[in-house]
Amino acid sequence: MTVNMGPQHPSTHGVLRLVLELDGETVRSASPTIGYLHTGIEKTSEQKKWQQVIPLVERMDYLSAQSNSMAFCLSVERLLGLEIPQRVTDIRVLIAELQRINSHLVWLGTHGMEVGAVSVMLYCFRERELLLNLNEMLAGFRMFPSYMRVGGLREDLPRGFHDAVRAFLDRFLPKLHEYEDLLTKNEIYLKRTQQVGVISKEEAVAYALVGPIARAAGIDYDVRKYFPYLGYDTYEFAVPTETRGDAYSRYLVRVAEMKESVRICRQALERISATGAFAVDDPRITPPPKDRVYTEMEALIQHFLIYSQGFTVPAGEAYVPVEGPRGEHGFYVVSDGTNRPWRVKCRAPSLLACQALERMIVGGLIADVIAVIGSIDVVMGDVDR
Amino acid sequence: MVTMDSVALIALLQEAVPGVQLEHAPGIDSQPTIFVSRDDLPALALALRDRPDLAFTLLAELTAVDYWPREPRFEVVYILVSMEHRRRLRLKVRLHGDDAHVVTMTEVWPAANWLEREVWDLYGIQFDGHPDPRRLLMPEDWEGYPLRKDYPVQIKMTPRSAEPLQVTEEEFRSSLTRDRLSRG
Protein backbone atom coordinates (compact mmCIF):
# COMPACT_ATOMS: atom_id res chain seq x y z
CA MET A 1 0.00 0.00 0.00
CA THR A 2 1.23 3.50 -0.77
CA VAL A 3 0.74 6.10 1.90
CA ASN A 4 1.26 9.76 1.28
CA MET A 5 2.48 11.23 4.54
CA GLY A 6 2.46 14.98 4.58
CA PRO A 7 3.11 17.63 3.40
CA GLN A 8 0.55 18.80 5.97
CA HIS A 9 1.21 16.18 8.62
CA PRO A 10 1.81 17.67 12.06
CA SER A 11 4.76 15.42 12.81
CA THR A 12 6.75 16.39 9.72
CA HIS A 13 8.04 19.59 11.36
CA GLY A 14 6.90 21.83 8.57
CA VAL A 15 6.09 20.61 5.13
CA LEU A 16 7.97 17.43 4.39
CA ARG A 17 6.19 14.96 2.15
CA LEU A 18 7.00 11.26 2.38
CA VAL A 19 5.63 8.72 -0.06
CA LEU A 20 5.80 5.47 1.87
CA GLU A 21 5.43 2.04 0.33
CA LEU A 22 4.05 -0.21 3.06
CA ASP A 23 3.83 -3.94 3.50
CA GLY A 24 1.51 -4.34 6.46
CA GLU A 25 3.11 -2.04 9.00
CA THR A 26 6.63 -2.35 7.59
CA VAL A 27 8.04 0.44 5.46
CA ARG A 28 9.38 -1.01 2.21
CA SER A 29 10.49 2.21 0.57
CA ALA A 30 10.29 5.89 1.28
CA SER A 31 10.82 8.82 -1.00
CA PRO A 32 10.94 12.27 0.59
CA THR A 33 9.79 15.25 -1.44
CA ILE A 34 10.97 18.65 -0.33
CA GLY A 35 10.82 22.16 -1.66
CA TYR A 36 7.45 23.26 -0.31
CA LEU A 37 9.12 25.94 1.81
CA HIS A 38 11.60 27.04 -0.85
CA THR A 39 11.68 30.81 -0.63
CA GLY A 40 14.79 31.58 -2.66
CA ILE A 41 16.61 33.29 0.19
CA GLU A 42 19.96 32.68 -1.50
CA LYS A 43 18.78 34.48 -4.64
CA THR A 44 17.21 37.31 -2.64
CA SER A 45 20.45 37.78 -0.70
CA GLU A 46 22.25 38.61 -3.92
CA GLN A 47 20.02 41.67 -4.35
CA LYS A 48 20.54 42.97 -0.80
CA LYS A 49 23.29 44.92 0.88
CA TRP A 50 25.50 42.98 3.25
CA GLN A 51 23.78 44.00 6.48
CA GLN A 52 20.34 43.49 4.94
CA VAL A 53 21.04 39.78 4.48
CA ILE A 54 21.01 39.18 8.24
CA PRO A 55 17.22 39.16 8.78
CA LEU A 56 16.90 36.87 5.76
CA VAL A 57 19.34 34.23 6.96
CA GLU A 58 17.74 34.24 10.40
CA ARG A 59 14.57 32.99 8.78
CA MET A 60 16.26 30.03 7.10
CA ASP A 61 16.65 27.78 10.09
CA TYR A 62 14.07 29.47 12.26
CA LEU A 63 15.00 27.58 15.42
CA SER A 64 18.63 28.64 15.35
CA ALA A 65 18.14 32.18 14.09
CA GLN A 66 20.99 33.88 15.91
CA SER A 67 23.36 31.06 15.17
CA ASN A 68 22.66 31.58 11.45
CA SER A 69 23.22 35.29 11.48
CA MET A 70 26.38 34.82 13.54
CA ALA A 71 27.76 32.35 10.99
CA PHE A 72 27.00 34.79 8.19
CA CYS A 73 28.67 37.65 10.05
CA LEU A 74 31.76 35.56 10.77
CA SER A 75 32.19 34.75 7.07
CA VAL A 76 31.76 38.37 5.99
CA GLU A 77 34.07 39.59 8.75
CA ARG A 78 36.68 37.12 7.54
CA LEU A 79 36.44 38.69 4.08
CA LEU A 80 36.68 42.19 5.54
CA GLY A 81 39.60 41.16 7.72
CA LEU A 82 38.05 42.75 10.81
CA GLU A 83 39.40 42.36 14.32
CA ILE A 84 36.31 41.86 16.46
CA PRO A 85 36.51 43.12 20.07
CA GLN A 86 36.82 40.36 22.65
CA ARG A 87 33.65 41.44 24.45
CA VAL A 88 31.60 41.00 21.27
CA THR A 89 33.06 37.54 20.78
CA ASP A 90 32.07 36.53 24.30
CA ILE A 91 28.55 37.91 23.89
CA ARG A 92 28.22 35.95 20.67
CA VAL A 93 29.24 32.76 22.44
CA LEU A 94 26.61 33.42 25.10
CA ILE A 95 23.90 34.09 22.53
CA ALA A 96 24.84 31.08 20.41
CA GLU A 97 24.65 28.75 23.40
CA LEU A 98 21.32 30.18 24.54
CA GLN A 99 20.10 29.62 21.01
CA ARG A 100 21.26 26.00 21.18
CA ILE A 101 19.29 25.45 24.38
CA ASN A 102 16.30 27.14 22.75
CA SER A 103 16.46 24.91 19.68
CA HIS A 104 16.97 21.73 21.70
CA LEU A 105 14.01 22.63 23.92
CA VAL A 106 11.71 22.93 20.94
CA TRP A 107 13.08 19.66 19.64
CA LEU A 108 12.60 17.89 22.95
CA GLY A 109 9.08 19.19 23.33
CA THR A 110 7.87 18.30 19.85
CA HIS A 111 9.68 14.97 19.75
CA GLY A 112 8.33 14.05 23.17
CA MET A 113 4.82 14.95 22.15
CA GLU A 114 5.05 12.91 18.95
CA VAL A 115 5.93 9.76 20.84
CA GLY A 116 3.17 10.33 23.36
CA ALA A 117 4.64 12.43 26.16
CA VAL A 118 2.49 15.52 25.77
CA SER A 119 3.39 17.02 29.13
CA VAL A 120 7.05 17.27 28.08
CA MET A 121 6.05 19.66 25.34
CA LEU A 122 4.21 21.92 27.75
CA TYR A 123 7.18 22.01 30.12
CA CYS A 124 9.75 22.61 27.37
CA PHE A 125 7.78 25.45 25.85
CA ARG A 126 7.45 27.00 29.31
CA GLU A 127 11.23 27.27 29.58
CA ARG A 128 11.60 28.32 25.97
CA GLU A 129 9.25 31.20 26.67
CA LEU A 130 11.84 32.53 29.13
CA LEU A 131 14.50 32.36 26.42
CA LEU A 132 12.26 34.24 24.04
CA ASN A 133 11.77 36.83 26.78
CA LEU A 134 15.55 37.18 26.90
CA ASN A 135 15.56 37.77 23.14
CA GLU A 136 12.87 40.38 23.55
CA MET A 137 14.91 42.11 26.23
CA LEU A 138 17.94 41.99 23.95
CA ALA A 139 16.45 43.30 20.74
CA GLY A 140 12.71 43.74 21.06
CA PHE A 141 12.04 40.74 18.86
CA ARG A 142 11.42 37.24 20.12
CA MET A 143 12.06 34.78 17.30
CA PHE A 144 14.37 36.64 14.92
CA PRO A 145 16.11 39.36 16.91
CA SER A 146 18.52 40.42 14.08
CA TYR A 147 20.84 41.44 16.88
CA MET A 148 24.03 40.35 15.13
CA ARG A 149 25.66 42.74 12.76
CA VAL A 150 28.64 42.47 10.48
CA GLY A 151 31.28 44.01 12.70
CA GLY A 152 29.64 43.29 16.04
CA LEU A 153 26.21 43.76 17.52
CA ARG A 154 23.38 46.15 16.87
CA GLU A 155 23.55 47.78 20.28
CA ASP A 156 24.91 47.17 23.73
CA LEU A 157 23.41 44.64 26.13
CA PRO A 158 20.35 46.01 27.93
CA ARG A 159 20.59 46.85 31.61
CA GLY A 160 20.05 43.83 33.81
CA PHE A 161 20.77 41.30 31.06
CA HIS A 162 23.40 39.44 33.09
CA ASP A 163 21.00 38.93 35.98
CA ALA A 164 18.21 37.83 33.67
CA VAL A 165 20.43 35.19 32.04
CA ARG A 166 21.71 34.00 35.43
CA ALA A 167 18.16 33.69 36.71
CA PHE A 168 17.27 31.63 33.66
CA LEU A 169 20.29 29.34 34.02
CA ASP A 170 19.60 28.79 37.73
CA ARG A 171 16.03 27.87 36.98
CA PHE A 172 16.76 25.81 33.89
CA LEU A 173 19.09 23.10 35.22
CA PRO A 174 16.65 21.66 37.81
CA LYS A 175 13.91 21.78 35.19
CA LEU A 176 16.10 19.82 32.79
CA HIS A 177 16.43 17.12 35.45
CA GLU A 178 12.64 17.05 35.62
CA TYR A 179 12.40 16.38 31.89
CA GLU A 180 14.90 13.60 32.27
CA ASP A 181 12.80 12.10 35.04
CA LEU A 182 9.91 12.08 32.62
CA LEU A 183 11.72 10.45 29.71
CA THR A 184 15.14 8.90 30.31
CA LYS A 185 13.88 5.81 32.12
CA ASN A 186 10.31 5.95 30.88
CA GLU A 187 9.40 2.47 29.65
CA ILE A 188 7.13 3.72 26.88
CA TYR A 189 9.69 6.23 25.68
CA LEU A 190 12.44 3.60 25.67
CA LYS A 191 10.29 1.23 23.66
CA ARG A 192 9.51 3.91 21.12
CA THR A 193 13.07 5.10 20.61
CA GLN A 194 15.62 2.39 21.36
CA GLN A 195 16.90 0.56 18.27
CA VAL A 196 14.82 2.87 16.13
CA GLY A 197 16.23 4.81 13.19
CA VAL A 198 19.70 3.38 13.65
CA ILE A 199 22.49 4.79 11.52
CA SER A 200 26.03 3.45 11.72
CA LYS A 201 29.16 5.49 12.15
CA GLU A 202 30.32 4.81 8.57
CA GLU A 203 26.97 5.73 7.06
CA ALA A 204 26.80 8.90 9.11
CA VAL A 205 30.12 10.03 7.62
CA ALA A 206 29.15 8.99 4.09
CA TYR A 207 25.92 10.97 4.28
CA ALA A 208 27.73 13.94 5.82
CA LEU A 209 25.62 13.82 8.97
CA VAL A 210 27.06 16.06 11.63
CA GLY A 211 26.02 17.41 14.96
CA PRO A 212 23.94 15.42 17.44
CA ILE A 213 23.04 12.69 14.91
CA ALA A 214 26.69 11.91 14.23
CA ARG A 215 27.64 12.21 17.89
CA ALA A 216 24.92 9.70 18.77
CA ALA A 217 26.61 7.31 16.34
CA GLY A 218 30.00 7.69 18.00
CA ILE A 219 31.65 10.46 15.96
CA ASP A 220 32.97 13.16 18.23
CA TYR A 221 33.08 15.75 15.43
CA ASP A 222 32.22 19.14 16.85
CA VAL A 223 33.34 22.27 15.02
CA ARG A 224 33.85 24.01 18.36
CA LYS A 225 36.58 21.49 19.19
CA TYR A 226 37.93 20.61 15.74
CA PHE A 227 38.08 24.06 14.15
CA PRO A 228 37.68 26.48 17.06
CA TYR A 229 36.09 29.85 16.36
CA LEU A 230 35.03 32.67 18.72
CA GLY A 231 37.65 31.40 21.16
CA TYR A 232 35.76 28.23 22.00
CA ASP A 233 39.12 26.58 22.72
CA THR A 234 39.37 28.74 25.84
CA TYR A 235 36.07 27.46 27.24
CA GLU A 236 35.73 24.32 29.31
CA PHE A 237 33.11 21.95 28.01
CA ALA A 238 32.72 18.35 26.93
CA VAL A 239 31.36 16.90 23.71
CA PRO A 240 28.89 14.20 24.72
CA THR A 241 28.82 11.14 22.47
CA GLU A 242 26.92 7.87 22.37
CA THR A 243 27.58 4.80 20.30
CA ARG A 244 24.31 3.14 19.39
CA GLY A 245 23.17 5.66 16.78
CA ASP A 246 19.45 5.25 17.48
CA ALA A 247 16.79 7.81 18.34
CA TYR A 248 17.33 7.29 22.06
CA SER A 249 21.07 8.05 21.77
CA ARG A 250 20.21 11.29 19.98
CA TYR A 251 17.97 12.19 22.89
CA LEU A 252 20.76 11.50 25.39
CA VAL A 253 23.28 13.52 23.36
CA ARG A 254 21.01 16.55 23.04
CA VAL A 255 20.09 16.59 26.72
CA ALA A 256 23.76 16.35 27.67
CA GLU A 257 24.53 19.14 25.20
CA MET A 258 22.07 21.42 26.92
CA LYS A 259 23.93 20.89 30.19
CA GLU A 260 27.23 21.70 28.51
CA SER A 261 25.68 24.82 26.99
CA VAL A 262 24.68 25.97 30.46
CA ARG A 263 28.31 25.53 31.53
CA ILE A 264 29.55 27.60 28.58
CA CYS A 265 26.94 30.28 29.25
CA ARG A 266 28.14 30.65 32.83
CA GLN A 267 31.75 30.97 31.72
CA ALA A 268 30.83 33.52 29.07
CA LEU A 269 28.81 35.55 31.58
CA GLU A 270 31.86 35.79 33.80
CA ARG A 271 33.86 37.27 30.94
CA ILE A 272 31.36 39.83 29.67
CA SER A 273 31.67 43.19 31.36
CA ALA A 274 28.47 45.14 31.97
CA THR A 275 29.39 47.85 29.48
CA GLY A 276 32.03 48.14 26.81
CA ALA A 277 32.58 47.79 23.09
CA PHE A 278 29.72 46.17 21.22
CA ALA A 279 30.94 46.68 17.67
CA VAL A 280 34.16 47.12 15.82
CA ASP A 281 35.52 50.67 15.80
CA ASP A 282 35.42 51.19 12.03
CA PRO A 283 33.57 54.20 10.60
CA ARG A 284 32.86 52.37 7.33
CA ILE A 285 30.88 49.61 9.01
CA THR A 286 29.57 50.69 12.39
CA PRO A 287 27.07 53.56 12.37
CA PRO A 288 27.93 56.43 14.70
CA PRO A 289 25.96 56.87 17.94
CA LYS A 290 22.74 58.83 17.53
CA ASP A 291 23.72 61.80 19.67
CA ARG A 292 26.69 62.44 17.40
CA VAL A 293 24.53 62.12 14.27
CA TYR A 294 22.36 64.92 15.60
CA THR A 295 25.23 67.24 16.45
CA GLU A 296 28.16 66.56 14.07
CA MET A 297 28.32 66.89 10.31
CA GLU A 298 30.83 64.05 9.80
CA ALA A 299 28.74 61.64 11.81
CA LEU A 300 25.64 62.57 9.81
CA ILE A 301 27.44 61.92 6.51
CA GLN A 302 28.76 58.64 7.82
CA HIS A 303 25.28 57.66 8.98
CA PHE A 304 23.83 58.38 5.53
CA LEU A 305 26.60 56.53 3.73
CA ILE A 306 26.10 53.41 5.82
CA TYR A 307 22.33 53.36 5.48
CA SER A 308 22.13 54.31 1.81
CA GLN A 309 25.12 52.62 0.18
CA GLY A 310 26.27 50.20 2.81
CA PHE A 311 29.90 49.17 2.73
CA THR A 312 31.93 47.28 0.17
CA VAL A 313 33.58 43.96 0.90
CA PRO A 314 36.86 42.97 -0.80
CA ALA A 315 36.49 40.46 -3.61
CA GLY A 316 37.02 36.90 -2.51
CA GLU A 317 35.30 34.06 -0.80
CA ALA A 318 35.07 32.76 2.74
CA TYR A 319 33.44 29.94 4.62
CA VAL A 320 33.62 29.92 8.40
CA PRO A 321 32.02 26.79 9.83
CA VAL A 322 30.22 27.03 13.16
CA GLU A 323 28.55 24.41 15.31
CA GLY A 324 24.87 25.16 15.21
CA PRO A 325 22.19 23.23 17.12
CA ARG A 326 21.90 20.83 14.19
CA GLY A 327 25.60 20.45 13.49
CA GLU A 328 28.14 22.17 11.31
CA HIS A 329 26.65 25.02 9.39
CA GLY A 330 28.10 28.07 7.81
CA PHE A 331 27.86 30.47 4.95
CA TYR A 332 29.94 30.20 1.84
CA VAL A 333 30.08 33.83 0.86
CA VAL A 334 31.49 35.16 -2.41
CA SER A 335 32.05 38.86 -2.91
CA ASP A 336 32.88 40.68 -6.14
CA GLY A 337 34.08 43.75 -4.30
CA THR A 338 30.78 45.65 -4.28
CA ASN A 339 28.28 46.48 -1.57
CA ARG A 340 26.12 43.42 -2.33
CA PRO A 341 27.07 39.76 -2.04
CA TRP A 342 27.70 37.86 -5.26
CA ARG A 343 26.73 34.53 -3.78
CA VAL A 344 25.49 33.40 -0.38
CA LYS A 345 25.29 29.68 0.15
CA CYS A 346 24.13 28.19 3.40
CA ARG A 347 25.35 24.79 4.44
CA ALA A 348 22.11 23.22 5.65
CA PRO A 349 22.56 20.33 8.08
CA SER A 350 18.83 19.59 7.95
CA LEU A 351 18.98 18.96 4.20
CA LEU A 352 21.56 16.22 4.67
CA ALA A 353 19.65 14.76 7.63
CA CYS A 354 16.56 14.67 5.46
CA GLN A 355 18.49 12.91 2.72
CA ALA A 356 19.59 10.20 5.13
CA LEU A 357 16.06 9.80 6.50
CA GLU A 358 15.28 7.12 3.93
CA ARG A 359 18.15 4.95 5.21
CA MET A 360 16.80 5.21 8.75
CA ILE A 361 13.14 4.37 8.18
CA VAL A 362 13.14 1.70 5.44
CA GLY A 363 12.66 -1.70 7.03
CA GLY A 364 11.19 -0.25 10.19
CA LEU A 365 7.60 0.17 11.28
CA ILE A 366 5.42 3.02 10.14
CA ALA A 367 4.88 4.15 13.71
CA ASP A 368 8.65 4.57 14.02
CA VAL A 369 8.76 6.96 11.07
CA ILE A 370 7.37 9.68 13.30
CA ALA A 371 9.83 8.93 16.08
CA VAL A 372 12.72 9.04 13.59
CA ILE A 373 11.70 12.30 11.93
CA GLY A 374 11.43 13.77 15.40
CA SER A 375 14.81 12.46 16.45
CA ILE A 376 16.80 13.86 13.53
CA ASP A 377 15.43 17.32 14.29
CA VAL A 378 14.92 18.65 10.78
CA VAL A 379 13.77 22.21 10.30
CA MET A 380 12.12 22.50 6.92
CA GLY A 381 13.05 26.15 6.63
CA ASP A 382 16.65 25.01 6.67
CA VAL A 383 16.05 22.16 4.21
CA ASP A 384 14.39 24.28 1.57
CA ARG A 385 15.78 27.75 2.27
CA MET B 1 45.02 22.18 15.07
CA VAL B 2 47.13 20.69 12.31
CA THR B 3 47.50 23.12 9.45
CA MET B 4 48.83 22.30 6.05
CA ASP B 5 49.24 24.86 3.36
CA SER B 6 48.03 24.33 -0.17
CA VAL B 7 51.51 23.86 -1.62
CA ALA B 8 52.26 20.86 0.56
CA LEU B 9 48.81 19.47 -0.08
CA ILE B 10 49.25 19.82 -3.85
CA ALA B 11 52.57 17.99 -3.66
CA LEU B 12 50.91 15.17 -1.76
CA LEU B 13 48.06 14.95 -4.26
CA GLN B 14 50.40 14.96 -7.24
CA GLU B 15 52.17 12.01 -5.70
CA ALA B 16 48.84 10.24 -5.09
CA VAL B 17 47.44 10.79 -8.58
CA PRO B 18 50.31 11.00 -11.09
CA GLY B 19 49.82 13.48 -13.92
CA VAL B 20 47.02 15.44 -12.26
CA GLN B 21 46.81 19.15 -13.10
CA LEU B 22 46.26 21.21 -9.98
CA GLU B 23 46.20 24.92 -9.48
CA HIS B 24 46.43 26.68 -6.18
CA ALA B 25 44.02 29.58 -5.75
CA PRO B 26 44.86 32.25 -3.21
CA GLY B 27 42.10 32.69 -0.67
CA ILE B 28 41.32 35.38 1.86
CA ASP B 29 40.33 32.89 4.51
CA SER B 30 42.99 30.43 5.48
CA GLN B 31 41.39 27.40 3.84
CA PRO B 32 43.44 25.79 1.08
CA THR B 33 41.68 26.07 -2.27
CA ILE B 34 42.60 23.94 -5.25
CA PHE B 35 41.33 24.03 -8.83
CA VAL B 36 41.16 20.73 -10.66
CA SER B 37 40.16 19.96 -14.21
CA ARG B 38 36.94 18.10 -14.88
CA ASP B 39 38.68 15.01 -16.22
CA ASP B 40 40.97 14.60 -13.22
CA LEU B 41 38.18 14.92 -10.67
CA PRO B 42 37.12 11.24 -10.26
CA ALA B 43 40.64 9.93 -9.65
CA LEU B 44 41.46 12.81 -7.36
CA ALA B 45 38.27 12.41 -5.34
CA LEU B 46 38.98 8.75 -4.71
CA ALA B 47 42.52 9.53 -3.61
CA LEU B 48 41.30 12.31 -1.33
CA ARG B 49 38.84 10.01 0.37
CA ASP B 50 40.83 6.78 0.57
CA ARG B 51 44.46 7.70 1.21
CA PRO B 52 45.08 7.51 4.95
CA ASP B 53 47.31 10.62 4.91
CA LEU B 54 44.45 12.62 3.36
CA ALA B 55 41.23 10.95 4.59
CA PHE B 56 38.77 13.61 3.43
CA THR B 57 35.84 11.36 4.23
CA LEU B 58 33.26 14.09 4.87
CA LEU B 59 31.81 16.10 2.01
CA ALA B 60 30.58 19.05 4.01
CA GLU B 61 29.19 21.05 1.14
CA LEU B 62 28.78 20.96 -2.61
CA THR B 63 27.65 24.05 -4.41
CA ALA B 64 28.26 26.20 -7.45
CA VAL B 65 28.91 29.85 -8.21
CA ASP B 66 27.95 31.62 -11.43
CA TYR B 67 30.43 34.27 -12.59
CA TRP B 68 28.43 35.30 -15.64
CA PRO B 69 29.33 37.00 -18.03
CA ARG B 70 32.88 35.75 -17.47
CA GLU B 71 33.84 32.45 -19.14
CA PRO B 72 34.27 29.78 -17.83
CA ARG B 73 31.27 31.02 -15.93
CA PHE B 74 30.59 28.21 -13.45
CA GLU B 75 32.65 26.98 -10.56
CA VAL B 76 31.51 23.83 -8.77
CA VAL B 77 32.78 23.94 -5.20
CA TYR B 78 33.37 20.92 -2.99
CA ILE B 79 34.11 21.65 0.67
CA LEU B 80 35.82 18.64 2.21
CA VAL B 81 36.68 17.86 5.81
CA SER B 82 39.21 15.39 7.08
CA MET B 83 38.07 14.69 10.63
CA GLU B 84 41.09 12.50 11.28
CA HIS B 85 43.65 15.19 10.41
CA ARG B 86 41.46 18.17 11.36
CA ARG B 87 41.89 19.74 7.97
CA ARG B 88 39.59 21.38 5.46
CA LEU B 89 39.93 21.70 1.71
CA ARG B 90 38.02 23.56 -0.97
CA LEU B 91 38.09 21.80 -4.31
CA LYS B 92 36.84 23.61 -7.39
CA VAL B 93 36.04 22.70 -10.95
CA ARG B 94 35.62 25.35 -13.66
CA LEU B 95 32.92 24.79 -16.25
CA HIS B 96 31.99 26.62 -19.46
CA GLY B 97 28.42 27.78 -19.83
CA ASP B 98 27.79 25.87 -23.07
CA ASP B 99 29.36 22.69 -21.70
CA ALA B 100 28.20 22.61 -18.09
CA HIS B 101 28.49 19.04 -16.94
CA VAL B 102 30.74 17.18 -14.53
CA VAL B 103 30.97 13.62 -13.23
CA THR B 104 28.77 12.84 -10.25
CA MET B 105 30.41 12.23 -6.88
CA THR B 106 27.61 10.10 -5.45
CA GLU B 107 29.78 6.98 -5.66
CA VAL B 108 32.54 8.59 -3.64
CA TRP B 109 30.49 10.62 -1.17
CA PRO B 110 26.83 9.47 -1.03
CA ALA B 111 25.94 12.83 0.54
CA ALA B 112 26.50 14.41 -2.88
CA ASN B 113 23.20 13.02 -4.16
CA TRP B 114 20.83 15.76 -3.04
CA LEU B 115 23.47 18.45 -3.13
CA GLU B 116 24.10 17.73 -6.83
CA ARG B 117 20.38 17.68 -7.48
CA GLU B 118 20.15 21.11 -5.90
CA VAL B 119 22.96 22.45 -8.10
CA TRP B 120 21.27 20.96 -11.19
CA ASP B 121 17.99 22.48 -10.08
CA LEU B 122 19.27 25.99 -9.48
CA TYR B 123 22.21 26.26 -11.90
CA GLY B 124 21.47 23.72 -14.63
CA ILE B 125 24.85 22.02 -14.27
CA GLN B 126 24.53 18.36 -15.26
CA PHE B 127 26.08 15.61 -13.22
CA ASP B 128 26.95 12.67 -15.49
CA GLY B 129 25.90 9.35 -14.09
CA HIS B 130 23.74 10.78 -11.33
CA PRO B 131 21.33 8.08 -10.11
CA ASP B 132 18.35 10.42 -9.68
CA PRO B 133 18.73 13.53 -11.88
CA ARG B 134 15.56 15.39 -10.91
CA ARG B 135 14.95 18.86 -9.62
CA LEU B 136 15.09 19.09 -5.84
CA LEU B 137 13.57 22.36 -4.67
CA MET B 138 11.75 23.87 -7.65
CA PRO B 139 8.65 22.26 -9.19
CA GLU B 140 9.37 19.54 -11.75
CA ASP B 141 8.09 21.62 -14.66
CA TRP B 142 9.92 24.84 -13.84
CA GLU B 143 11.64 26.52 -16.73
CA GLY B 144 15.12 27.94 -16.31
CA TYR B 145 17.65 27.82 -13.50
CA PRO B 146 16.92 30.50 -10.90
CA LEU B 147 20.35 31.04 -9.37
CA ARG B 148 22.00 31.77 -12.72
CA LYS B 149 22.97 35.41 -12.95
CA ASP B 150 21.21 35.88 -16.30
CA TYR B 151 17.93 34.59 -14.90
CA PRO B 152 15.38 37.42 -14.73
CA VAL B 153 14.63 38.33 -11.13
CA GLN B 154 11.21 39.91 -11.57
CA ILE B 155 9.60 36.96 -13.27
CA LYS B 156 5.99 35.93 -12.86
CA MET B 157 5.30 32.32 -13.64
CA THR B 158 2.67 29.92 -12.39
CA PRO B 159 3.85 26.34 -12.29
CA ARG B 160 1.35 24.14 -14.09
CA SER B 161 1.35 21.60 -11.28
CA ALA B 162 -0.10 24.22 -8.94
CA GLU B 163 -3.36 24.54 -10.85
CA PRO B 164 -6.19 22.91 -8.90
CA LEU B 165 -7.58 19.71 -10.31
CA GLN B 166 -11.12 20.22 -11.68
CA VAL B 167 -13.40 17.22 -11.25
CA THR B 168 -17.01 17.11 -12.44
CA GLU B 169 -19.69 15.58 -10.25
CA GLU B 170 -20.03 12.53 -12.54
CA GLU B 171 -16.31 11.86 -12.45
CA PHE B 172 -16.35 12.21 -8.70
CA ARG B 173 -19.23 9.79 -8.25
CA SER B 174 -17.89 7.23 -10.71
CA SER B 175 -14.51 7.32 -8.98
CA LEU B 176 -16.26 6.74 -5.64
CA THR B 177 -18.14 3.72 -7.00
CA ARG B 178 -14.99 2.32 -8.56
CA ASP B 179 -13.20 2.65 -5.25
CA ARG B 180 -15.98 0.80 -3.40
CA LEU B 181 -16.00 -1.97 -5.99
CA SER B 182 -12.26 -2.50 -5.87
CA ARG B 183 -12.38 -2.90 -2.12
CA GLY B 184 -14.98 -5.62 -2.57
Description:
The complex is a heterodimer of chains A (385) and B (184). Chain A has one domain (2-384): Orthogonal Bundle (Cytochrome-c3 Hydrogenase, chain B). Chain A is built from 16 helices and nine strands. Chain A has helices at residues 41-45, 53-58, 65-80, 86-114, 118-139, 161-183, 187-193, 201-206, 212-216, 223-226, 247-271, 290-295, 297-308, 349-361, 366-376, 380-384; strands at 2-5, 17-23, 26-33, 148-149, 152-153, 316-319, 322-324, 327-335, 341-347. In chain A, strands 6, 7, 8 and 9 form a four-stranded antiparallel beta sheet that branches. In chain A, strands 1-2-3 form a three-stranded antiparallel beta sheet. A two-stranded antiparallel sheet of chain A has the order 4-5. In chain A, α4 (86-114) packs antiparallel against α15 and α6 (161-183) packs antiparallel against α11. With 184 residues, chain B is α/β, with parallel strands linked by helices. Chain B has a single domain (6-183), classed as 2-Layer Sandwich (Beta Polymerase, domain 2). Chain B is built from four helices and seven strands; from the N terminus they run αββαββββαβα. Chain B has a five-stranded mixed beta sheet. The longest helix of chain B is centred in the C-terminal third of the chain and has 15 residues, at 169-183. The radius of gyration of chain B is 22 Å and the shape is elongated. Mean pLDDT of chain B is 79; it is low at 179-184. The A-B interface holds A 34-35, 38, 40, 42-43, 47, 75, 78-79, 81, 205-208, 210, 219, 221, 226-228, 314, 316-321, 328, 332, 334, 342-343, 345, 347, 351-352, 354-355, 384-385 and B 1, 27-29, 31, 57-61, 63, 65-66, 77, 79, 83, 86, 88, 90, 109-111, 113-115, 118, 122, 135-139, 146-147, 153.
